[in-house]
Design brief:
Blueprint lengths: L10 H10 L6 E5 L2 E9 L3 H18 L4 E5 L3 E6 L9 H11 L15
Antiparallel strand pairs: 1-2, 2-4, 3-4
Length: 116
């Protein structure tokens, strides 16, 4: 039987993982009593926003780790990543953020980010 332990990260480890996993554009948000990774984008159209979320959902499903995905208005995409089971950040959150950051999403965005 395989047992996997997921540990809630302290702020020192969060800082380490931010640099180790190279997650450009992701910011730390302290909401209530938990830390989350957050990023937002502006997409060209509503349909491009849905395509953006589908591409992220495919990665999340493959990882078995599901972020909070939001399409706000017709062109604002926001993602919050945190591990619900522990009420904060784990290493898996940074792995997922890194994989999302590596997706080719530029053709869906209104403005191409300069940091990618």
């Amino acid at each position: 039987m395989l047992v996997i332990f997921v540990y809630l990260l302290c702020l020192n480890w969060i800082s380490y993982f931010l640099s180790y996993f190279q997650v450009p554009g992701w910011i730390l948000v302290h909401e209530g009593d938990k830390w989350k990774l957050h990023q937002s984008w502006k997409v060209k159209t509503f349909v491009k926003g849905m395509e953006f979320l589908r591409l992220v959902a495919d990665v999340a499903e493959a990882e078995g780790h599901h972020p909070d995905l939001h399409l706000i208005g017709w062109n604002n995409v926001e993602i919050d990543i945190w591990t619900h089971a522990v009420g904060g950040l784990t290493e898996n959150d940074f792995i997922l953020a890194a994989k999302i950051s590596k997706l080719n999403l530029h053709h869906l965005l209104r403005i191409t980010p300069t940091n990618k």
